[in-house]
Amino acid sequence: MKIVQKVEKIYNDYKILGEWFNKFSTVGRQKTGGVTRLAYSSEEDEMHRIFKDISEDLGFAVETDGVGNTFVGLQKNKNKRCYLIGSHLDSVPNGGIYDGVLGVIGGLLILKWIKDNNIDIPVKVVAFRCEESSAFGKATIGSGLVTGKVKEEELCNFKNKKGESLKDILKSKGFLTKSYKLGELEGYIEIHIEQGRVLWDKNIELGIVTSIAAPKRFKLSIYGRQDHSGATPMMMRKDALSTASEVILEIEKLGRVESIYSTVATVGEIYETPNALNVVPGFVELGIDIRGIESKSINRVVSELKNSIKRITDKRGLNYKLTMTSSSEPVKLDDTIVKGLKRSSEKLKLSCIEMPSGAGHDAMEFADITKTGMVFIPCREGISHNPKENASLKQLYNACKIVCEYLKEVSL
Ligand code: HGY
Ligand code: MN
Ligand code: MN
């Protein structure tokens, strides 16, 4: 192919990625410029409808499973062992427009190349529901249901902030709650923004992910006594919010101590009643997110956390209840895929490093059932889960190139 045709083809692919991306980017838009597309909301439904429309316009077969995951492929490969390439289309509240979406449109571009060039590699692209924990307090529910890690009988336990159960929501949306039966897979590959700043700071084009940190999450309820803020002397209070503040700073300290093992500890969610200026807070609920790639380090934070909560509440004379809301183990990704993706990057003269993922991904659900790999592209200043999240479609194109190169190397 002449150089001019090559450049024209690359330009065309960038244009197509841009068009697909723009179709998604207005859904759930907030005044801040961020997007809110919570799992199983009308916004996430809209995202899947757009994915379905784009795929059908390309002549692909589209399948929506019983929990709303969307699978796209060539009709002829419907029942074949295939490579799954995918990610998610839901977001955190007021999040960025690149998280998840890039992995889905990247997979679609690879599938388009396979179809247009008649490359005989069985690939399906998937968009999973409910990857983010923001809606139901548990992440990767859509992919967890497909891989059997999440059981259908658990659906009634997952509740959103309005107290609605996921089971009722699925029923109200006409889903049968029977998820897609995977069958044998050749492998699972996910392209995603890094959501941290290693690639950005080092000015490296691609990250080949070697392991994915996994969360242990807790809900901490602190029971104080709601009192008049003027008439209650300081030494006679049972202030739930001051108690929670001591716990929050202790969690940050524990995370800092273990940060040498890439462990992190965050209190990202707080609920307080009655949240009134002239009332001593009576009740606080915290959402605690501890993650890492070393289980021993995560477990040290968890055990220290329990000791600290007991010490602080005893000292202040308050009761509390600590509930573990989710617990998964860090996952190692497939070495042959890591090496293969590295070979492809070198072949295509794209700079890359091997690195862990601090963020969770749908890929976590596949690592123990099939060969699983992930490719990161940089995001500007490492910002993510934030309206300022930004990434380059050119670098997404590069990630698609090395994944396609790898698939050709191992399949043809
Ligand atoms: O929270 C996470 O790690 C990811 O964004 N689901
Ligand atoms: Mn996310
Ligand atoms: Mn994501």
TrEMBL record:
Residues 217-311 form the Peptidase M20 dimerisation domain. Pfam families: M20_dimer, Peptidase_M20. SUPFAM superfamilies: Bacterial exopeptidase dimerisation domain, Zn-dependent exopeptidases. It comes from the Bacteria. Keywords: Hydrolase. Belongs to the peptidase M20 family. This is M20 family metallo-hydrolase. The lineage of its organism: Bacteria, Bacillati, Bacillota, Clostridia, Eubacteriales.
